[in-house]
Amino acid sequence: MACLHLSICSFRHRPIQCSNERQALFNRIAPVYDNLNDVLSLGQHRIWKRMAVSWTGAKMGDNVLDLCCGSGDIAFLLSEKVGSNGKVTGLDFSKEQLLIASSRQKLRARDCYKNIDWVEGDATNLPFSEYQFDAVTMGYGLRNVIDKYRAMLEMYRVLKPGAKVSVLDFNKSTQPFVASFQLIRLSAGFRVPYLSFLEGSTNSIL
User: Fold this and answer.
1) How far apart are CA 59 and CA 193, in angstroms?
2) What 8-state DSSP symbol labels residue 183?
3) By the 8 A CB rule, do 66 and 75 touch?
4) Which tens digit of pLDDT belongs to each residue from 68-97?
5) Which residues of 21-34 are buried (b: 16+ CB within 10 A; e: fewer)?
6) What is the DSSP letter of 84?
7) By C-alpha distance, which of 99, 89, 86, 30 is closest to 58?
8) How far are the Cα atoms of 120, 159, 182, 186 from residue 66, in angstroms, in the given order?
9) Cβ distance 117 to 87 under 8 Å?
10) Cβ distance 63 to 132 under 8 Å?
C-alpha cells in the first residue's frame, strides 16, 4: 500500500470531463498498452513518435506539453530534447497510465528525465495558462477525445505564438487510392499513421 501511495503522489489530479466508459477502458488496458501499440504497428510507432517530437522543433530549455501521454513514451523523448534545464508536462485522463509512466520515470537514470511532471487531466479543459508552452504533442490521443475541436482550441490557447503542435494518430483516408493502399498495409499487419502539426496562429485551427 505504501508503494501505491508514493506513486499516486507523484502526479497531480485534476477534474476530468469525459466518457466514463472510455476512461475506464484505458485504465483497464494500461498494463498492456505499450505491447498493443507494438502489435498494431509492428513496432513502427517508436519511429513515428520520434518523428512527431522532431516536428515540434523543441530545443534545450523549452517548456513542452505532451497530451494523452499514456505511459510516457513521447514525454521521455521530449525530455531528451529540452534537457535538464527544460520542462515536460505529461497529461492523461487515465490514472493507471500515469502510474506506469511515473514508475518508468523512476527507473531512468538520466537527469533530463527528472524534468517531467505528470498531470491527470482533460485534454478539452487544460489546467494551464495561455501561451505557456513552446511545443505541444499528442500521440494517438485525438481519436479518443470526445470534443476534438475543443481539444485543438485548448492546444492553441496554451501554445506560445509561433510554436507548434505535433499530432500523431492512425488515419483512414477518404481518398480511394490511398484507402486501398492502407487496406493492403493493414492486411499485412501495419497500421498507417498520419503526422500533422499546427502553428500558433488562429488560421491553423479556425
Assistant:
1) 25
2) H
3) yes
4) 999 899 999 999 999 999 999 999 988 888
5) eebeebeeebeebb
6) T
7) 86
8) 12, 12, 27, 28
9) yes
10) yes
* CB of 18 closer than 8 Å to CB of 122: yes
Residue-level pLDDT at 187: 35
d(CA 160, CA 110): 28
End-to-end Cα distance, the chain: 48
In the block, residue with C-alpha cell 504497428: 41
Amino acid letter at 175?
Answer: Q
CA 80 to chain CA centroid, Å, is 15
Rounded to an integer, what distance in angstroms lies between the CA atom of residue 143 and that of residue 42?
Answer: 20
Amino acid at 126: L
Q: Grid coordinates representing 103?
A: 514508475
Query: pLDDT of 137-183, one tens digit each?
Result: 998 888 788 898 999 999 999 999 989 999 887 665 555 544 443 33
